[in-house]
Design a protein that fits this description.
With 425 residues, the chain is an alpha+beta fold. It has 13 helices and 18 strands. The strands form five sheets. The chain has an eight-stranded mixed sheet with strand order 1-11-12-13-16-10-9-4. It has a three-stranded antiparallel sheet with strand order 5-7-6. Strands 8-14-15 form a three-stranded mixed sheet, with no helix packed on it. Strand 14 and strand 15 form a beta hairpin. The two termini are 53 Å apart. The model has no long low-confidence stretch (mean pLDDT 94).
């Protein structure tokens, strides 16, 4: 959530930058400023009434001591009227503040000046790439056929148990999943991230804190009886660890990592690249979250991007990094880099990670701040990234490493799998 100061002090600049996200902020800004003016007017009236109440209440005591009971009773009547008026103004104040917060919640984060112009994914800018695309020949099989041939993943059984998008991993497939989770967690820990194990459901306040609500409620599974949400990513519970927290400057930067199952309804995506592991309702992911001082957040972002690059390189996958354009970047992000790996049998790029800087947008919602000895208390910047999401990594590993003898395992992963090739059952 943008702060009132950001909006009021930089109105035209904010409108210009949000236009890059294809969001016309002009009317929203007018409403916010009008509500803020109304809030200040209401507060001034309330302050005046309370001051008058306090003054008159003191007079009542003086008049009673002087024996002027009738005059004191007249003032008591006036004080009662003022109390009623104050109560009404206080109630109005709550309504204004709610309306103001509701308006602020609907305004996206301002994109960084580094965000390129563009309206869709085709306008994203490739900033770096590496690895070699394998030459598989015409007999190459997509991962869903390989999964069936080697009895790694049962998509039909998942449909029976839960529905489409909930696969069952078996044998080598289940072991590969577990190996990748441990591989990603160990690498994150060695890179200086503290491992945490968060809940898989969050309350409404947590959803608002990281910006999933009210923007993405249609994509989240909602347990209405308890008003809890299944997490779409470990970013939500891990970042919310610091909701309503004031960190000491010496505690920064905060670096956390977490594995979790992730749940996404993927509403509106049916029929779009949904075959096999390409798009699931439940999947595994290791997340990295960073919190730091504003002046260091882009240094942290570059470090996180470099770290994720090491993971795809260790897995020997062809990769590229995209800087997302204004039309493809998320509601909450100021700058995002997407990692994609090439799926050789499908002959297409698959997104496996997004690494983002949210600047103070999430921190303002979370009221996550730090205490600076010179500047007092101020908002932190929050960042997160996938390191990595498993389904499309598995898809690319299976497809790119298929041979006549079986599916080879990248060297760095063998200590975690306990096998170096997947053979026929």
């Amino acid at each position: 959530m943008l702060t009132l100061k950001q909006i009021i002090d930089n109105k035209e600049e904010m409108i210009r930058r949000l236009a890059v996200k294809r969001f016309d902020a002009r009317e929203a800004v007018v409403r916010v400023i009008a509500l803020n003016d109304k809030r200040k007017e209401n507060q001034q009236k309330l302050d005046n009434l309370l001051a008058e109440q306090n003054s008159l209440s003191k007079q009542v005591g003086m008049l009673m001591r002087e024996g002027k009971k009738d005059d004191a009773e007249d003032i008591k009547v006036r004080v009662a009227v003022l109390k009623a008026e104050s109560k009404a103004l206080d109630s109005e104040k709550e309504e204004i503040e709610k309306a103001l917060r509701d308006e602020l919640l609907l305004i996206p984060n301002m994109p960084s000046e580094l965000v390129p112009e563009g309206s869709c994914a085709e306008d994203n800018v490739c900033v770096k790439s590496g690895g070699e695309v394998p030459s598989l020949g015409t007999s190459a099989m997509p991962h869903w056929d390989l999964a069936k041939k080697y009895d790694l993943i049962d998509f039909e059984l998942g449909v029976k148990i839960s529905g489409a998008g909930f696969p069952v991993y078996k044998g080598y497939g289940a072991r590969l999943q577990r190996a990748l989770i441990n591989f990603f967690l160990d690498n994150a820990r060695e890179a200086g991230f503290l491992e945490v194990q968060p809940p898989y459901v969050v309350n409404e306040a947590s959803g608002y804190g990281t910006g999933q609500l009210p923007d993405k409620e249609g994509q989240m599974y909602h347990a209405t009886a308890d008003n809890l949400y299944l997490i779409p990513t470990a970013e939500v519970p891990v970042t919310n660890i610091y909701r309503d927290v004031i960190l000491n400057e010496t505690e920064l930067p905060v670096r956390n990592t977490a594995y979790s199952a992730c749940f996404r309804r993927e509403a509106g995506s049916y029929g779009k690249d949904v075959r096999g592991l390409n798009r699931l309702h439940q999947f595994d992911k290791v997340e990295i979250v960073c919190i730091d001082k504003p002046e260091r957040s882009y240094e942290r972002l570059n470090e996180m991007v470099d770290y994720v690059q090491t993971l795809v390189e260790k897995l020997e996958l062809p990769w590229r990094i995209l800087r997302l354009c204004g039309g493809d970047i998320s509601f909450t992000s100021a700058l995002t880099y997407d990692f994609e790996v090439f799926s050789a049998a499908q002959e297409r790029w698959l997104e496996v990670s997004s690494v983002s800087n949210f600047e103070s947008f999430q921190a303002n919602r979370l009221r996550c701040r730090y205490r600076d000895a010179e500047k007092g208390v101020q908002l932190v910047h929050t960042l997160n990234g996938s390191a990595l999401a498993l389904p499309r990594i598995v898809a690319a590993l299976l497809e790119n490493n298929q041979t006549n003898e079986g599916i080879k395992i990248p060297k760095a992963l063998v200590p975690y799998t306990g096998f170096n090739i997947i053979t026929l059952p």
